[in-house]
Amino acid sequence: MRYTGKLTGGLLGFVLGFGPVGAVLGALIGHQFDAHAERREAGGYAGGPAAVGERFFRATFRVMGCLAKADGHVSAQEIAAARAVMGQLGLTGAQVHAAIEHFTAGKQPDFDLQGQIAELNRVCVGRPHLKRVFLELQIRAALAGNDLDGPVRALLMQIAARLGIPAFEFAHIEAALRAQARPFGASAAASSGEDLERAYRVLGVAAADSNRDIVKAYRRQLSRHHPDKLKANGLPDSMLEHAKQRTQQIIEAYELIRERRRMDP
Predict the structure, then answer these.
(1) How far apart are the C-alpha atoms of 95 and 91, rounded to whole Å?
(2) First and final CA of the chain: distance in angstroms?
(3) Cβ-contact 254, 203 below 8 angstroms
(4) Do residues 219 and 187 lie in contact, with contact meaning Cβ atoms separated by under 8 Å?
(5) Fewest 10 Å CB contacts: which of 116, 163, 185, 195?
């Protein structure tokens, strides 16, 4: 017969002479054991946010290095793109050093990409927004490195599929990050309607969608990228700048759409 930790803990507390109070305390301790065991059995990761963040950081730059090597060699532009991402994130000197070491490890012929993605999946059980941020960072570097050209696109799409991120969401992330390269209202594009089209792409909506659908999409995107929420789920402090930049882009896109469509505040 298989006893749960909750039942076993309660019985043990009672038998050892602690009476009903001991039984309750034992049951509480056993409940914590059960919760931990269930996560292990499901292949999940029971570590706290700090441990999640450490593994997320490592996976981010190792996979980034692997993607840069997807066509057999790493170009100077791809190295510069990875460096630019590190700079845009505002990494400290020590963090940059660690990121470069991980990037270099990912370039090696014996790097286990499938194993790394499997570990990331375990770490991100119950944390789907972290997976999206991970993919965003990879696409961000790949766009700057070689514009997602050649085998890197196919490999990134395979990674997205393994993370449970569908192709349509991959396309939305790519469109949003391409739009991020130029701020809204930075040129005459604002009057030509190009900015408005980019704003729709950032929210993942179409011009034909209703105002209600646009508001729902806006709130959904904000929820996915809220820095405090991501931090609570394990996104390391070193990556929060990306979440802040994406949040600002989402707000600006919505405000532009709201203004053009004369939506209520």
Answers:
(1) 6
(2) 61
(3) yes
(4) no
(5) 185
The predicted-structure confidence for 177-207, as pLDDT tens digits, reads as follows 998 877 776 655 455 688 999 999 999 999 9
Say which amino acid occupies 156: L
Q: Identify residue 251 by its one-letter amino acid code.
A: I
Answering whether pTM is above 0.85, one says no
As a whole number of angstroms, the distance between CA 164 and CA 161 comes to: 5
Chain segment 46-73, per-residue pLDDT in tens: 678 899 999 999 999 999 999 999 999 9
- How many CB atoms within 10 Å of residue 73? 9
Please name which of 131, 139, 112 lies closest in space to residue 233, comparing C-alpha atoms.
131
Give the tokens for residue 52: 């999640």
Out of 6-15, 126-135, 247-256, pick the least confident: 6-15
Alpha-carbon distance of 54 to 40, in angstroms, equals 19
- CA distance linking residue 265 with residue 263, whole number of Å: 6
